[in-house]
Amino acid sequence: MSEIQTHYRTCNICEAMCGIEVRHKDNEVLSIRADKQDPFSMGHICPKAVAMQDYYKDPDRLKTPIKKTESGWQDISWEQAFSEIGEKIREIQDIHGKDSVGVYLGNPNAHNFGNAIYFPQFFKALGSINRYSSASADQLPHHVAANYMFGSGMAISVPDINRTDYILMIGANPMVSNGSMMTAAGMPKRIKNIQKRGGKVVVIDPRRTETAKIADQHHFIKPEQDALLLLAMIQVIIHDELVNLRHLKSTVVGFQQLQQTTSEYTPESVANAIGLSAEEIRQLAHDFALAKSAVCYSRMGASTQTFGGLCQWATLVLNIITGNFDRQGGAMFPQPAFDLLARVNPGKPNSYGRYQSRVRKLPYFNGEFPVATMADEIQTKGERQIKALFTIAGNPVLSAPNGDRLDTAFEELDFMVAVDIYLNETTKHADIILPSTTGLEVSHYDVFFNSFAVSNTVKYSTPTFEKENNQMHDWQILKALTSSITGLPDDGSTAEMILDMTLKSSSYDDLSLQKLLDNPHGIDLGPLKPCANERIKTSDGMIQLAPQIFLDDLPRLKEYSEQQKIIKTEFPFKMISRRLIRSHNTWTHNSYRLIKGKNPVTLQIHSQDAESLDIENGETVKVRSTTGEVQIDVEFYDDMMQGVVSIPQGWGHNHKNTGMNTAAKQPGISINSLTDDSRVDLLTGNAAFNGTPVSVTKID
Ligand SMILES: Nc1nc2c(c(=O)[nH]1)N[C@H]1C(S)=C(S)[C@@H](COP(=O)(O)OP(=O)(O)OC[C@H]3O[C@@H](n4cnc5c(=O)[nH]c(N)nc54)[C@H](O)[C@@H]3O)O[C@H]1N2
Ligand SMILES: Nc1nc2c(c(=O)[nH]1)N[C@H]1C(S)=C(S)[C@@H](COP(=O)(O)OP(=O)(O)OC[C@H]3O[C@@H](n4cnc5c(=O)[nH]c(N)nc54)[C@H](O)[C@@H]3O)O[C@H]1N2
Ligand code: SF4
Ligand SMILES: [Mo]
After folding, report:
1. Which residue CA neighbors atom 41 of ligand 1 most closely?
2. Pocket of ligand 3 (CB under 6 A)
3. Which of 415, 511, 596, 621 lies at 20 to 30 Å from 564 by C-alpha?
């Protein structure tokens, strides 16, 4: 008889890095609970972690490579899959050039140990600049701002949430999302602790969110007007002589330019456009500047919008000019043991805009072009047109702006390979699907999210369950793909070997894989410390307060505000997205325990807005945008700002064409049938999901 065993590991579904305790007998999961001994998550967990057992046992999961044939999908061996892929990719690149093969990387790549380690080899083998990822539907503006102000896109500062006295959250809903670009398991407790120590939580959001409801203050803001709010706050702080650079005095350049360019953004001049009164804006600026410590944290709401770059720049400026940067309780740099900044040399060449995308001239940054132009690059004939595509752990048909267009574009490819655990809306277009292990079957070390974590810890998790003999991990698939393209043999390395080497050479003493194996709950490396001197990578070590590219983008902001006064009639509402506690992006809906109950995919609208259109609560309505139309049930929700409607992101499962059975019970509609791929932040190329103009009408 086998024994009940307890396994400790990290949940790798989202960036919160919660420690979990999995009790199991052989490969039957008995329970999944929070690991109270994890020094980072300290007993936090969310419902999604429990669903890890569902993905482990899911009969829809692919376990062997499949190939599309005239008589349907056929199982094939890994050898056959890699050999056919290698041959086809070489053939396409011989005819159309290296750049004719594109790559799209989805979100789980950031959560899967090993992927980041083996991507460089794979990219080198392909030799194509046609790369895309979910980063440009997400946090790209954070990286561009960090690149220009601190000299590296990975020099990301995070709120010192554990010690701050005042947090201003713009377009973030951590009570649901658990935090993002701020890895902080247990956000509900961390937020309550701010209030317990007498601090304040202020939320700026067009929806009175779950976070806004527990905050000390919430202000509605019209979608995509956050840059104006931030600029006005900066104007007030400078005008009212509240600037206090503190310890940063000798590290900051560009203050004069900042003062000059922001002086026109008085609260009075922006109040109408943004929907806050001039007094409210002034008060916010004063409260922020005068708090013992304060941090401004702007996320999805301030990034996936027409002015994402300006928002992230202005957010950092606000933290810096109030002396809340690289200081306890302000915005601070994590010092991860596996340090992605370690090999960045100060003054390294800037990759922003090194190339422009072929069709729409959007900027290349950090090895990629914006995903909002991927369909253009597939569908527009000419040199460097994408003829073949790899999608790796991504579902852009549901996640990218105007996903329906990609649904068509993927059919036009000569060849497509998907590395994915499911046959879904995106992977159904592939010629070959390579299924990887996932969740409880994989080992884990968080390479990325320790770089955004609110305290420094290290932890390595062994797999809870051994993978089946014929299965491959994502990183093994990447290595095999690399060999299949280059024809060169595998170098024999493993992700674990690289981790061990990196830990041993880290700035922390005595770290090694063995030490982490001996400490399965993880090791605390202490709170964030001031360390800008080692994290800033500009050539002169100075922080750039007013990089020209942001100043040059300000006229666009002005034009937009002018336009807003005119275009109203055809699409009178602004649409925003929302996240749900029991759903993660596009791929978790095959867990029945997460999706059971009422259909959560509703159009939230203020009852007065609905009633003015003669629409009743629960009624199915038509929502139309420049790109598409959907039918969806209305939910009266008076916590919406009037004029703004909200739809959950990540849904729209088309059960007829995919293998995902449980998800098909609650298909929902895809919000990205409505978002427009021509709406981007022109500065960074990031997708502008927020504020998509839509109309809402009765169905006759
Ligand atoms: N309108 C709107 N659109 C949005 C957003 C929004 O707020 N509003 N949010 C954006 C954001 S923040 C993001 S990050 C993107 C996400 O965009 P994507 O990354 O494209 O979408 P995911 O749902 O994360 O796709 C994950 C894919 O990986 C597969 N998968 C899951 N686990 C594994 C694994 O371990 N290995 C492999 N190989 N595959 C795996 C899943 O089956 C799925 O196909 O969506 C963006 N799209
Ligand atoms: N449960 C759950 N957790 C998740 C995910 C998930 O799908 N489900 N996805 C994960 C991923 S990939 C990410 S990137 C993070 C994202 O984490 P968050 O950034 O916290 O994401 P959202 O919940 O989308 O919050 C964005 C907020 O911005 C608001 N908003 C929309 N437009 C505007 C605007 O123009 N201005 C302002 N000020 N606000 C606006 C929305 O109302 C929403 O409350 O969440 C992660 N965690
Ligand atoms: S918050 Fe994220 S990491 Fe934590 S249990 Fe939920 S899905 Fe997993
Ligand atoms: Mo994301």
Report:
1. 587
2. 11, 13-14, 16-18, 45-46, 48-49, 178, 185
3. 621
What is the bridge-based pairing of β-strands 573-578 and 644-648?
parallel
160-327+532-551: CATH homologous superfamily? Dimethylsulfoxide Reductase, domain 2 (3.40.228.10)
96: pLDDT strictly greater than 90: yes
The highest-level CATH class for domain 66-138+343-526 is alpha beta
Which ligand does the CA of 175 lie closest to? 2
What mean pLDDT is predicted for residues 122-133?
98
Would you say 40 and 19 are in contact if contact means Cβ atoms under 8 Å apart? yes
Domain 5-57 falls under CATH 3.55.40.20: no
Measured at the CA of 122, the angle between CA 119 and CA 126, to 5 degrees, comes to: 135
**Do residues 117 and 284 make contact, with C-beta atoms less than 8 angstroms apart?**
no
pTM above 0.90, yes or no: yes
Cβ–Cβ < 8 Å for 604, 645: yes
CATH code assigned to 568-698? 2.40.40.20
684 within ligand 1 shell (Cβ under 6 A): no
Among all chains, which residue has been given the structure tokens 């003493």?
509
For ligand 3, the distance from its centroid to the CA atom of residue 49, given in whole angstroms, is: 6
Residue 566 has pLDDT above 80, yes or no: no
Question: What is the rounded average pLDDT of the residues 66-87?
Answer: 98
Give the pLDDT of residue 182: 98
Tokens standing for residue 293: 């410590």
Ligand 1: centre distance to CA 77 (Å): 27
Which residue's alpha carbon is at the smallest distance from atom 4 of ligand 3? 18
- Nearest-ligand number for the alpha carbon of 475: 1
- The three-class DSSP label of residue 590 is coil
Sheet of strand 4-10: strand arrangement: 4-10, 19-25, 28-34
CA 623/CA 12 separation, integer angstroms: 35
Write down the residue that tokens 């932890």 correspond to: 459
**CA atoms in the 13 A half-sphere facing the CB of 66:** 21
Domain ranges of the chain: 5-57, 66-138+343-526, 160-327+532-551, 568-698
Listed residues: CB within 5 A of ion ligand 4 = 138
Residue 116 and residue 391 in contact, taking contact as beta carbons nearer than 8 Å: no
Tell me if domain 160-327+532-551 and domain 568-698 are identical in fold: no
**Phi and psi (nearest 5°) for 526?**
100, 170
Q: Find out whether the beta carbon of 436 lies less than 6 Å from any atom of ligand 1.
A: yes
Q: How many CB atoms lie within 10 A of CB 395?
A: 27
Interval between CA 261 and ligand 4 midpoint (Å): 32
Alpha-carbon gap, residue 27 to 23, rounded angstroms: 10
What pLDDT score does 587 carry?
A: 96
pLDDT-derived band at 664, boundaries 50, 70, 90: confident
107 lines ligand 1 (CB under 6 A): yes
| 1 pLDDT more than 70 | no
CA of 399 to the centre of ligand 4 (A): 10
Q: Residue 419 has what pLDDT?
A: 98
Distances in whole angstroms, Cα of residue 305 to Cα of each of 131, 669, 684: 21, 21, 10
User: Token pair for residue 698?
Assistant: 């009765």
Q: What is the pLDDT of residues 340-393, one digit of tens each?
A: 999 899 998 889 999 999 999 999 999 999 999 999 999 999 999 999 999 999
Q: What's the CA gap between 621 and 634, in Å, rounded?
A: 7
Ligand 2 midpoint to CA 178 (Å): 10
Q: In this structure, which ligand is nearest to the CA of 397?
A: 1
